[in-house]
Amino acid sequence: MNAVSESAYLLGHASQEHMRLIRQAETLAPHTSRLLRLAGIARGQLVLDIGSGVGDVAQLAAELVGTSGRVVGLERDPNALRVARRRAGEAGAAQIEFRECDLNSMRIEGQFDAIVGRFVLMFLPDPGATIRRLVRLLRPGGVFVSQEPAWSMFYPACARLPLRAACGRALCDAFIQSGARPDMGLELHAAMLAAGLTEPRTVIEVPTTTNAHGDQWLPDLLATVRSRTGAAFNGGEWLEPMGTLSERLGREVDSAKAFAPLVPLIGTYARSVPLSLHF
């Protein structure tokens, strides 16, 4: 998720952000794993993971390709790379190799069976151009898989949860001000077609909070964004005190007898043109 320059990446690269990513990844793991399986990630494949962050998506891909496959993770933040390498070592995932690389100026060669990424394209200045560059690294018939948010779909799910909706709007405002695309998921289908990929398939899932990490997801994000751009929340008195926000969000859900949505995830996968279709 840390694929762009420090100035453009709203969430930063501090150690606290690395821990937040790990907590977030635990909540998102089943949704991302399902998408990778649907896209056909399987044993023995060579997979490129873009914007690896602290390595969570790379580890999910490694579980699917097994010891006969290989995962190459690209990440520009050397501190995140150290964390990712340590965690992969602790997990015994020797089939993962992490490389320091900025997607905006990457120099990498190879023919991959799959290219995967989660919450990466939304932070890039020109995601369409990046997809077009990456597609050249796919073998004929290889698959490009991306999972991105669709924040505009978050608010209808929060119709009975005004505090939760306000948190989402504050985050989206901050994302937009930073140049990020909070609705990148809605752009994936068209971007993949424009890059020459074929027959995009889309899966939409709305995670809900089912554990402590999920319950803390919104307060975690808001705390990170506010520490980076304090001005983004001017007029957000509803945030205070931040230390009780998680509890207040929980009370709101209980009072409304509603489920608590996280951001909707749009996962899209599409294939490069097989050699048999080249003329």
SSE layout and pairings?
Layout: H1 15-38, E1 46-50, H2 56-65, E2 70-75, H3 78-90, E3 96-100, E4 112-118, H4 127-135, E5 138-149, H5 154-157, H6 162-178, H7 188-194, E6 198-205, H8 212-215, H9 217-228, H10 245-256, E7 265-271
Parallel strand pairs: 1-2, 1-4, 2-3, 4-5
Antiparallel strand pairs: 5-7, 6-7
Structural class: alpha/beta
Radius of gyration: 19 Å
CATH superfamily: Vaccinia Virus protein VP39
Q: Looking across the biggest beta sheet, what order are the strands in? A: 3-2-1-4-5-7-6
How many helix segments? Answer: 10
Which CATH C-level class is it?
Alpha Beta
The percentage of residues in β strands lies in 15-25%
How many angstroms does the end-to-end distance come to? Answer: 37 Å
The overall pLDDT average reads 89
Shape: globular
Q: Please give the share of residues in helix.
A: 40-55%
Number of domains: 1
If you had to describe this structure to a student in words, what would you say it looks like?
- The protein is of the alpha/beta class and 279 residues long.
- It has a single domain (15-272), classed as Vaccinia Virus protein VP39 (Rossmann fold).
- The chain has ten helices and seven strands.
- It has a seven-stranded mixed beta sheet, with helices on both faces.
- Helix 3 links the parallel strand 2 (70-75) and strand 3 (96-100).
- Helix 1 crosses helix 9 and helix 6 (162-178) packs parallel to helix 9.
- It is globular and about 50 Å long.
